[in-house]
Amino acid sequence: MGNDKPVTLFIQCLVDGMYPKVGEAVVRLLENLNIPVDIPMDQTCCGQPAFNSGYRREALVAARRFIEIFEKARVIVCPSGSCVDMVKHQYPVLFKDDPAWQRRALAVSRKIFELTEYIVDVLKIEDVGASFEGTVTYHDSCHLLRNLGVADQPRKLITKVRGLKLIEMENAQKCCGFGGLFSVKFPDISTAILEEKIAHIIAARADAVVGCDISCLMNIEGMLKRKNVSIKTLHIAQLLAGP
Which of 90, 181, 194, 220 reaches 20 to 30 Å from 231, CA-CA? Predict the structure, then answer.
């Protein structure tokens, strides 16, 4: 299972700052697959928040730093669809007026993968040997589904987990309302979208809701706690890596 060629891990800011156990689970999962992991300690934000807010100059600073740190990597793996989308699809746009940097951005964009995309599509692994006693439902995060086209890969991994039953919620592909700064700028709309998502999660009657982006899960977790609903939120790395 796996291979002996190392991957370079890029950890999303929210994971690094607020959910470090997700990052630890990613490392544990890859090591369980006999994949050596390299983690550049000087990595920082990919620039997505600034880019999405229209601050292109600030996003360029972060993007150049990301490229300088990661361009020598053989493969880059990240447990966040939105960050992978930023590097894969938005960096080439960001550097459209700078041919030299755009070439470097394109080279990096071709070797970055979201975690489940890498395991299923590149490594051709669907069963990682995980186990979980209970039921889960799965939330499709927006950038992961719409921009990267990753939908089946997480489900293939989830359904191979021993002892687990996957219950598909209604409208699993609909947004959770977070959208980064969208939830700050448009809180009423964001909350209304989230209320609908939470209703579908509760209706699924699962023990846990699983996702591939911690930003969505953080948003969902907050509302579940405010409603005193005892449904766990799990990043897929936590489900697959085990305790």
Answer: 181
